Recover the amino acids of this structure.
DNA sequence: GTGAAAGCGCTAACAC
DNA sequence: GTGTTAGCGCTTTCAC
């Protein structure tokens, strides 16, 4: 019942613990014969190395923190999968916290990460600037922080994984125009997030280019949920502002908007077409399926994990930014 | 940059490490004055206890394994949240793996958990019997296993958190009948899962009771995804079997079914009404919103965590089954 | 009330 | 090629 340790093997084989250790680690300074005996005994007695001891010795916790705004949509789960692909085989644990889009909760989560002695933190933040002080504080402790999707204000020098929100947003809006839409609503994300600004800017640029920009078509929300999407469109309708399409910051917002329109018996995409940013299965689980900018989430997770590893291995490794490509996927909603 | 240890405090204050330790642990055998000095110094130098050392010493990894079939839907995330509520404050890490509904992947995941020296495993399994040998093997190592939602065959004595699938299924089907439906399709889950059998039995019982049971209305799937739901209904339509409603094993299957029907311009709920088992936001993100048996997922996670804790504290603690209540939520799809 | 020392499981210098 | 030993950071006897 008790765990078998290297000491048990040592007694069992009348060998020193160091020889056992060496044999297990494939050190060359071990007789082939001996190694075999050790390996056999280890197998037979069911020896499993004690990671905690290893970690204590190496001074690492072999734990990575993963801090995300939410896990209600599959967005974070997909990124997580990518991170796991890279880190599990290397023996890293991943500890996850959700911030519920609240910078204060994010703060607490980051403190938790510090207590857990994580070797690095991979984070999708809630607010561009509000927690900059802790990000800096944590990095000063020697804990690398890797940002993905939503990144902090330029003033912080950190590694990050992003897509080009500005360009992708422009492309999507231009596509809507090419399908004949002129009154394109933009449901913007929380303005405390740089991506929201970038996507808004892309939207603006195109509408200005085609000379159809109208301030009234921009709808603010104070949150990112389905309900916020619904409310946004509800407001717009009540203000009697005509529109023929919607470009939403996220698929969740888009789905909320769509749901409300369908309740109002508005036909999609005939009367109103809808597009958004996504990368999850959600886009294709609704009817009609949503046209969206499909972010390569799993790949983004893998990239973030790699960035974390390079900082862990060498803390002076210069920060890098990985720009991922995202694909526009045209579905039935446009 | 280097971590402050108890030794640094010891040097700094010219006290032995044991006194420092005692002061930090609020041991009574410390002069109040001394304790104060220690606490102040700890604060000032930024001392943070090294969890790894603690764990080595206590023989625990303070890590819990969480093994789920998938993280595409928010199902597992919600349970995870509940587990975190209980375990994070206690200093436990949680390591998560997805099995992709594949018992072989689940096996590998469980082995990974063993390697990670987890103190307990909380699992939603892929197949009722196929991995019983490892479950037993793991428990024989002294690692408690807590099952939730999908549980192993009765032959295993384990702690579990479940809802009454049979009853809830019956209630939902009876509700459909009361809304005037007579040709109720059941999309069953994988038969390697006890829940699928239970829900099927509940369905059968009611249809038999009302004398409207028809074997043809039961649709098998070989998976749990959205696409499987679509395919199931496609098959049914191609076989020209008339029906006026659907009761699906899961919301994902229901959404697939609904999506296909909407594509075929079938009106919901007028021509076909739909209900399923759920507990996630998905049910209300589609149009029309899905009627479903709403499982208390976060609460289930909390319960599972409690069960894990009692087994960790006392390995001989008898296994318990917690039966949670689930609510029938009537939405627009019926 | 405080200190010295052992020990948790393992690796890595250092001997031989 | 193998053994001895120190040490990772901490708690916990055991002395005093």
């Amino acid at each position: 019942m008790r765990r078998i340790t290297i000491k048990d093997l040592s007694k069992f084989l009348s060998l020193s613990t160091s020889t056992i250790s060496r044999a297990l680690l494939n050190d060359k300074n071990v007789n082939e014969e001996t190694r075999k005996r050790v390996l056999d005994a280890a197998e037979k007695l069911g020896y499993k190395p004690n990671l905690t001891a290893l970690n204590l010795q190496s001074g690492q916790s072999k734990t990575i923190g993963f801090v995300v705004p939410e896990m209600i949509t599959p967005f974070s789960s997909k990124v997580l999968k990518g991170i796991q692909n890279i880190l599990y085989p290397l023996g890293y644990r991943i500890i996850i916290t959700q911030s519920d889009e609240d910078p204060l909760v994010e703060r607490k989560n980051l403190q938790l990460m510090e207590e857990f002695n994580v070797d690095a933190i991979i984070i999708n933040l809630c607010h561009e600037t509000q927690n900059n002080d802790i990000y800096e504080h944590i990095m000063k402790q020697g804990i690398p922080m890797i940002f993905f999707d939503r990144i902090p204000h330029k003033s912080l020098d950190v590694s990050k994984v992003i897509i080009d929100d500005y360009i992708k947003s422009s492309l999507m809006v231009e596509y809507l125009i090419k399908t004949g839409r002129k009154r394109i609503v933009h449901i913007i994300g929380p303005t405390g997030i740089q991506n929201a600004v970038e996507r808004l800017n892309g939207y603006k640029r195109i509408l200005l280019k085609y000379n159809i920009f109208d301030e009234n078509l921009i709808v603010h929300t104070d949150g990112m949920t389905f309900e916020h999407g619904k409310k946004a469109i509800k407001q717009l309708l009540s203000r009697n502002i005509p529109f023929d399409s919607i470009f939403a910051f996220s698929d969740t917002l888009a789905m909320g908007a769509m749901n409300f329109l369908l309740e109002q018996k508005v036909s999609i995409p005939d009367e109103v077409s809808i597009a958004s940013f996504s990368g999850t299965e959600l886009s294709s689980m609704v009817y009609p399926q949503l046209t969206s900018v499909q972010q390569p989430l799993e790949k983004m997770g893998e990239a973030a994990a790699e960035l974390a590893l390079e900082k862990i291995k060498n803390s002076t490794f210069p920060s890098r930014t990985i720009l991922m490509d995202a694909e526009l996927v045209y579905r039935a909603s446009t």
Remarks:
- Residues 3, 5-7, 17-18, 21-22, 25, 49-50, 52-54, 56-58 of chain B lie near DNA strand D (CB under 10 Å from a C1').
- Residues 297-313 of chain B form the longest helix (17 residues).
- DSSP finds 13 helices and twelve strands in chain B.
- The first strand of chain B starts at residue 63 and ends at 68.
